[in-house]
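hey so i finally got around to running the thing on that chain from the lab meeting. sorry it took forever, my laptop kept dying and i had to restart like 3 times. anyway pasting the input first so we r on the same page abt which one it is
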Amino acid sequence: MNILDGKAVAEAMHTETKRALRSLGMRPGLGVVLVGDDAASHLYVSLKEHMAEQLGIRVEKRFLFESVSQQDVEHVIRGFNADENIHGILVQLPLPLHIDVDDVIQMIDPAKDVDGFHPENERRFLAGEAAFFPVFPRAILSLIRASGETLAGKNAVVVGNSWRFGNMMSLILKREGVLAKHIPCVECASEQGLSELKRADIIISACGKERTLTGSMLKIGAIVIDGGIVKDGARIVGDVDRASVQELDGYLSPVPGGVGPVTIACLLSNVVEAAKRRKMVIKEQ
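ok and heres what got predicted. didnt touch it at all, straight out
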């Protein structure tokens, strides 16, 4: 398979972000909320923090213990909402089970919701209004486009257990002229699931389960975006069984080196966009 190099796609986006930063004439601030001791979450935050600093975006991080209360998490978010020097807010997921994720996300000022998770941002985005492009779907679409293939008229399958993500991704693909369908991870190996996968020109997987997709399940020439992350000891792998697909025709975004770096690039692009919008609001006041 042809590898869709997420690092190269991300680097091109960083170049655009640097250009936007020079035009902005200020240093945007990103507020980060990190809860608990999950090793993967700490790694992801450090990667985001490192790249932000490289680009010239200031990061202000709040680390909270696993036992933190819902009220304390929301208190930190209210502080970031009120801080004029913070233009974007990132709450690293997952949160501990006793924290209501939806309530936390809804606490974020939509103007600072650079992940694009807030319901108001989702509503605006799907309605075609001015809103942040949700970073994970945007990263996936960027990798699909990197294949250079014409998308209009293709069939796509989004494999994942989140109907919210599946619906969002399907609607985004439909805007590109792609006929998209969402199926749960557990249905991949069913007769109906295998039939859908075999017809799909584009497959997006976000299950977090190794070997969810194997070569025998794919259509020849398919564009496969592996959005799953699985820890296997010291290794990080994705949903796609690399060994069984590497000799096939088509395209694959690998794990690691695929969706991850592009998602970070999309996030930081949104931070700069948030600062730009805030600057315009201040100018108009």
